Amino acid sequence: MISRREWLRLTSAAGAALSIDPGLLRRLGERDLITRSIPSSGQEVPIIGLGSSATFASLAQDGDAEAVRAVLRALVDGGGRVFDTAPGYAGGASEDVAGRVAQEDGIAQEVFWATKLNVAGRGGGSADPDQARAQVEASFDRIGKEVIELIQVHNMGDPAVQLPILREYKEDGRVRHIGITTTFEGQYDELVAVMRNEPLDFIGTDYAVDNRHAEETILPLAQERGIGVLVYAPFGRTRLWQRVEGMEVPEWAADFEAESWAQFFLKFVAAHPAVTAITPATSRPEHMVDNLGGGRGRLPDEEERRRMVEFVDNLPSA
């Protein structure tokens, strides 16, 4: 059995990002991905997925279907399924290009599609119901599936109007799970209020080893209410990469089988029992493969997580 470090060395030597064969990466994999159960439905999903904002959105906006294809294939061939997107990413290009590529490659049915809805105006304006329904229908057209696994109200966009619309789709059997998201600090209190008062299958929010606000109320409340959690920005977007630039992963991280910084950061998040799946965005298939390693093997226990927090908190600020 080849080591994870050797696996990454071999895949890096395989060539440039677009020439990597994701099927080869799967054959080199050592263990199945950890899965978590969605509280409301019992459906199992792999804990590491893929997000389509940031660099992935740039690929889609440029129309680089082959690059998008390489990342999606690395996700699916590596055992992942959860793909988080939104009509607001790259003006709909992320959802559109990914949906087209997945249909062309015959993997659309394998993917757990998590998209979003928000036609509310900037700064918390009201949402037009007809526009909201039109946006949902556009997502169905782009993704090409009769049933979408998850649609969430994006960034707390007028939940009084948009959540009932999603609930209609769920009752009609066209959407399996619904929820609401935010990664903005000023919206956390509103998110908590919706979690307390609305029947939700999921929330999506930011959480990282150096961004632990969600541990205070949001994650415990999700456990209490039986709400699944998608985690965004587990690398602090680029913040954590800047803080560890030029540094080696500490030797003691091998105790929980983290052999890269990506795996170190992802395993911290994955170890929280409220977390259902983590969807870091990437535009490179070799990074997708590395990320998937964060969902294999042993996760850190509470004492190890405290050590990880202390280590990161003592790093220089980005």
Q: What does this protein structure show overall?
A:
It is a single chain. This protein has helices spanning 4-13, 22-28, 54-61, 65-77, 93-105, 129-143, 159-171, 188-197, 218-225, 239-243, 261-270, 285-292, 302-313; strands spanning 35-37, 44-46, 50-51, 82-84, 112-117, 148-153, 175-181, 202-206, 228-232, 277-278. The longest helix is centred in the middle third of the chain and has 15 residues, at 129-143. The protein has a single domain (4-313), classed as NADP-dependent oxidoreductase domain (TIM Barrel), CATH 3.20.20.100. It has 318 residues and is an alpha/beta fold. The N and C termini lie far apart (38 Å). It is globular, with a radius of gyration of 19 Å. The protein contains 13 helices and 10 strands. Strands 3-4-5-6-7-8-9-10 form an 8-stranded parallel β-sheet. A two-stranded antiparallel ribbon has the order 1-2. The model is unreliable at 1-7 and 9-24 (pLDDT under 50). α2 runs parallel beside α4 (65-77), α3 (54-61) crosses α5 (93-105) and α4 packs across α5. 47% of the residues are buried. It is 42% helix and 13% strand. α5 (93-105) links the parallel β4 (82-84) and β5 (112-117).
Tags for this entry?
318 residues; 8-stranded parallel beta sheet; TIM Barrel; alpha/beta; 13% strand; 42% helix
Number of alpha- plus pi-helical segments = 13
**Unreliable residue stretches:** 1-7, 9-24
Radius of gyration: 19 Å
How many domains in all? 1
Number of strands: 10
Biggest sheet strand line-up: 3-4-5-6-7-8-9-10
- Percent of residues in helical segments? 40-55%
Structural category is: alpha/beta
Query: In percent, how much strand structure appears in the residues?
Result: 5-15%
Oligomeric composition of the shown chains: single chain
Basic shape:
globular
What is the N-to-C succession of helices and strands? HHEEEHHEHEHEHEHEHEHHEHH
> What is the CATH class designation?
Alpha Beta
**CATH fold description:** TIM Barrel
